[in-house]
Amino acid sequence: MKKIFLSVSILFTGTMLMAQATQKPPLHGKNWMAITGKPLAATAGSIVFQQGGNAVDAACAMLAATCTMWDVLSWGGETQAIIYNPKTGKVIGINALGVAPTGATPEFFKSKGYEFPPEYGPLAAVTPGTVGGLIHMLSEYGTMSLKQVLAPAMQLAAGYPIDAQTANSIERGKERIKQWPYSKKVLLPHLGEKREAPEAGEIFVQQDLLNTLTKLVEAEQNALKNKKTRKQALQAAYDRFYKGDIADEFVRGAQEQGGLITKQDLANWKVKEETPAMVNYKGVDVYKLTQWTQGPSMLQALNILENFDLKKMGYNSPQYINTVYQSMSLAFADRDFYYGDPAFAPTPQPMSGLLNKAYAKQRAALINPEKNNALVAPGDPYPFEGRTNPYTEQIKQWNFIDSTGKRNFVPAHDSTVTAKAELEAYMDRLWRGTTSVEAADKDGWVVSITPSGGWLPATIAGNTGIGMSQRMQSFVLDPTINPFNVVAPGKRPRVTLTPSMALKDGKPYLSFAVQGGDTQDQNLLQFFLNMVEFNMTVQQASEAENINTNQLWLSLGGTKIKDRMPRAGDLLISARTPEPTREALKKMGYKLSFGQRTSGPINAIFLDRKHNSLWGGSSNNGEDYGIGW
Fold first, then answer.
1. For a designed S-S bond to 604, which of 29, 401, 411, 617 qualifies (C-beta 3.0 to 4.6 A apart)?
2. Bridge partners of 628?
3. 3-class secondary-structure state, position 588
4. Tens-digit pLDDT profile for residues 39-62
5. DSSP state letters, 444-466
C-alpha cells in the first residue's frame, strides 16, 4: 500500500502559510499533458500522444500501465472518470465501478462475524470494472486501437525494473500474499529466501497478465480482420473479458479461493455514463461524479464555504482551518448517511436538496467560529426539493446508537502506547491509496481518472494475473448508518474515488484528482481553494499543506463498527504549523496530530486560456510524475 504523506517546503508569511517555492517545478506544454502515479506510466501516456492519440487514448494507456505496475491498483479494480468532450462542450461521467456479486448480503457477512465486509481477500471483491471502463472510454471518445493503447502496458507485463516502493510493499505484505496461491506465484518470485519479493530494480515479469492482455488484443484484431468496425472490435475484446475464456478463468480462480463472483455477475455488469453533479463557486463550475462516489461532498463543502470570506481569514489561519474543518464535517455527515448507488436507493436520494445553495446556507449557520461542533449530524435536505424526510427519527439517533443499542463517537486519540498503535492503524485506513490519471490535449480533450482496487496485498484470480478488487468493504451492513449503502447483489458500493474537473466561462479550467481514501475530497477541496482564493499556481497548490479531518465514518478498513466510527475533533495539520495557530486550535476543541505531509499526491492540469497553454501540477508526495509537450 502506498505511503503518501512525506515532507513539503512551505514559507511562513506572518500568520499565513503561502506556498512560494516548490520542490518540483511546474510542468508546461502547448500540445499535450500526461500525469499519473508512476514515471513509467506517464511515459506510456507520452508515447501514445506522440503516436497521434488524443487525451483519452493517452489516459487509457496510463491507466493500463499503472494497473500493470501495481500502483496501489490492479486490472481487477474499478475506474471512475470525468471527460470533457470539446466537440459537444459536454462534461461526461464514467462509472466503471464493479458490483457486489451473487450471495453478497448483510446476512452472509454477519454470519461470518463481520460488522462491515472484509478489507482483504476474495470476499472483499466486487466485479472488475477497469477493463470495461478503459475499453468503453477508448471506444466512445478515443481514436486508437486497443492494440496501440495496451502496447506499453504489455511491454511492462513482459518485464520491467520494479520500483522500490512496490517491491517493498510486496515484501511487507508477503504473509498475507502467501494465503492465495496465484498471488504467491506472481508476486513472490524468491519463495524460501530471506527476501521473497522482487528487489528494487529487478526485472519483474507477469506472464499470466501478459497472456490476458494478449487475449484482449487478439479478440480486437481478429474482429478487425473479419471486417468489423473499430467499435465492434473493441466490443469483442470487452466480451472476451466479461463473457469469454478470460471470464471463465477469473471466476474459477476467484471461487477456488472462496470468492462469490459468478460468470453471470460478470456478464450482467455494464459501464454506465452519467451527467456529473455540478455547483458554481464564485464563477467556476465544479464537476464531480454523483452519489455513488463521495464527490458531491466537495461540492456541498464549496456551497457552505461560499458563505464565508476565506481570503480575509488567511490561508491556514485558525479561523480558516476551523471553518474548513466544520464545512467538511457537515458535508461528510450527509455523505455518510445519504450517499449510495442510486439504482438501488430505498427512496430517491435528496441530491438536489443536498446541493441546494439555500440548504448550504442553513448548514453554514451551524459552524461555530469559536469551537468545533463535535455532534455534527446529517441535515435535512428534503424540504429543499419539496419532499418530507422519511429518516427524521433515524437521524436523531445517528450519532448515538449501534447494534448493541449504544453508539458514541470514538473519543479523540490519547497519548498511550496502545492508543498510538490504534491511531496509526486508523490513519492507514483513512489515507489508503489509489492513483490518479490526468490528460489534456491541444484539441480540447481533458480527462480526469481516479482508478483503484486490487491493491497490494491482492488476491489474484486464477491464472489471469489480475488482482481482485477490495471495494466491497465500502458497503455497510447496518442501515442505521446509511440506508442507501447497504450491500446487495448487483449493487455498487459508495466509493471514495473522486476525479474532478472545473470549467470557467464554459471552457475547461482545471482537471484534478488525488489518492488517499476518505481524504480525497478534503485534499481536493483545499487544492481548489488554494488556486481560486489564494492565487497559487497549480504546482504550489498541489504541494501546499492541507488539513485532514477524522470526523467521518471511514469508508475503508476494519470489519468492526468501532474501527470505522467518526473521531470528533481529530485534526491533522502540518508539523510546521506555528505555535500560536496550534494553541488557538486547541482552545477551539481540536485534538491535534502533526505530519510532515498532510495531503495525498495531487495531480492536476491547469488550462491557461490567457496564453493558450497547459500547466501541469504533480505533487511531491510520492512517485507521481508528469510529462508535457
1. 617
2. 33
3. coil
4. 999 999 999 999 999 999 999 999
5. S-EEEE--B-SPSS--B-GGG-P
Phi, psi for 349 (deg, rounded to 5): -70, 145
Q: Rounded distance, CA 24 to CA 617, Å? A: 9
The H-assigned helical ranges of 365-449 are 392-396, 417-431
- Angle between helix axes 318-338 and 295-305 (nearest 10 degrees) is 140
Report which residue type is found at 158.
A
- How far apart CA 565 and CA 572 sit, in angstroms, is 17
3 state SS for 16-80? EEECCCCCCCCEEECCEEEEECCHHHHHHHHHHHHCCCCHHHHHHHHHHHHHHCCCCCCCECEEE
Neighbours of 243 (CB within 10 A): 14
Closest-CA residue to 101 (of 319, 205, 254): 254
Residue 402 CA, distance from chain mean position = 28
d(CA 217, CA 212): 9
Closest listed residue to residue 461, CA positions, set 86, 180, 107, 201: 180
Distance CA 483, CA 347 (A): 9
Quick one: pLDDT at residue 424?
A: 60
Residue 464 and residue 185 in contact, taking contact as beta carbons nearer than 8 Å: no
Alpha carbons 64 and 135: distance in angstroms, whole number: 11
Let me know: does 72 contact 556? Beta carbons within 8 Å: no
Strand partners, 285: 280, 503
pLDDT digits (tens, 9 = 90+) for 584-612: 999 999 999 998 888 888 999 999 999 99
Please check whether residue 493 is in contact with residue 341, taking contact to mean a CB–CB distance below 8 angstroms: yes
Q: Interior CA angle at 313 toward 307 and 316, to 5°?
A: 110
Among residues 279, 277, 284, which one has the least CA distance to residue 506?
A: 284
CA atoms of 128 and 93, how far apart (whole Å): 18
Name which of 73, 90, 97, 93 is nearest 81 in CA terms. Answer: 93
Maximal C-alpha separation, the chain? 73
* CA dist., res. 459 & res. 469, Å (int): 8
Q: Tell me the C-alpha distance between 292 and 611, whole Å.
A: 37
Distance of CA 180 to the CA centre of its chain: 26
* pLDDT at residue 404 is higher than 70: no
Rounded-to-10 torsion of CA 223, 228, 229, 231: -50
* Residue 567 one-letter amino acid: R
| 469 φ/ψ angles, rounded to the nearest 5 degrees | -65, 155
Closest to 594 measured CA to CA, from 577, 618, 616: 577
* Pairing status of strand 507-514 against strand 500-504: antiparallel
What is the tens place of the pLDDT at every residue in 218-242? 999 999 999 999 999 999 999 999 9
Could you tell me how many residues make up the chain? Answer: 629
Determine contact, residues 88/140, Cβ cutoff 8 Å: no
Strands (E), 212-341: 272-274, 277-281, 284-288
Sequence-ordered list of residues with C-beta below 8 angstroms from that of 307, at least 6 positions apart, any chain: 360, 361, 364
Task: Record the cell numbers describing residue 587, joined without a space.
Answer: 482552545
Task: Give 567's Cβ-side CA count (13 Å radius).
Answer: 24
Phi and psi of 261, rounded to 5°? -65, 130
Buried (b) or exposed (e) across 197-219, using 16+ Cβ within 10 A?
bbeeeeebbbebbbebbebbbeb
Q: Which H or E run includes 251? A: helix 245-256
